[in-house]
Amino acid sequence: MDIKEKFGQRLRVLRKEKGLSQEELAEKSGLNRPYISAIELGKRNVSLEVMEKLAGALGVEIKLLLF
């Protein structure tokens, strides 16, 4: 499993812990749902800016996105 897949799995776990759908996370983060899906599937290499948006939408520190 590569780092993109690990990140995607971690994002999915945090999203589900917060009780959010991909659509809700997309709305809160300003990203689109297909992009969230691709991240969770390990198909996208996310930037620090995207990590910041995701962390903010989840209400967590960026470091919690990193396994």
What does this protein look like?
By secondary structure, the protein is an all-alpha fold. The chain has one domain: 434 Repressor (Amino-terminal Domain). Helix content is about 65%, strand content about 0%. Helix 2 packs across helix 3 and helix 2 crosses helix 4. The protein is globular.
Q: Poorly predicted ranges (pLDDT <50, ≥5 residues)?
A: none
> Which sequence of SSEs, written as H and E, runs from N to C?
HHHH
Distance between the termini: 13 Å
> What is the C-level CATH assignment?
Mainly Alpha
According to CATH, what is the topology?
Answer: 434 Repressor (Amino-terminal Domain)
If you average the pLDDT, what whole number results?
97
Pfam families: HTH_3
Protein name: Helix-turn-helix transcriptional regulator
Domain HTH cro/C1-type: 11-65
Keywords: DNA-binding
